[in-house]
Amino acid sequence: MKWVRLVATGMAWAVVYNGLWLLAWITFMRREWTEAAGASGESMPWTLEFWAVWIPVTVAFGFAVGGHLLSRPADDDTRRAAWAASLVIWVPGTIGMAFVPGLTPRIMVLDGVVNLVAVLVASLVVTGGMGRLLGPDASENTP
Questions:
Q1: Residue 46, domain extent
Q2: Are the beta carbons of 122 and 19 closer than 8 angstroms?
């Protein structure tokens, strides 16, 4: 696998994932989080420290998903591989929300759905789009 391809795929994954989250935030999630924080007396978790950790984490997720998808043989079912990679990220993240103080069941469900959609769409985009953009060597397993 070529490093340029992995970096491009990981960065594209992070951009798509965070872009979808931004869209959800602008359209409905901000209101939900604001109401939940106000009702529970907890502060919003979106601090500078949070973003300093979150951005590199999503890029790392992108590299992991990209590495998994790019290392698969070209004749593999890429949608199935994208689903599998997405679930590996989504399941622990969704379970982890149960341990965040002040989250209502409604927020956990909405957040979980947005995360699943964002993770899956990002994985499908890099599987289909990046493969066409960067060439046919998806099954090349050399570093």
A1: 3-134
A2: no
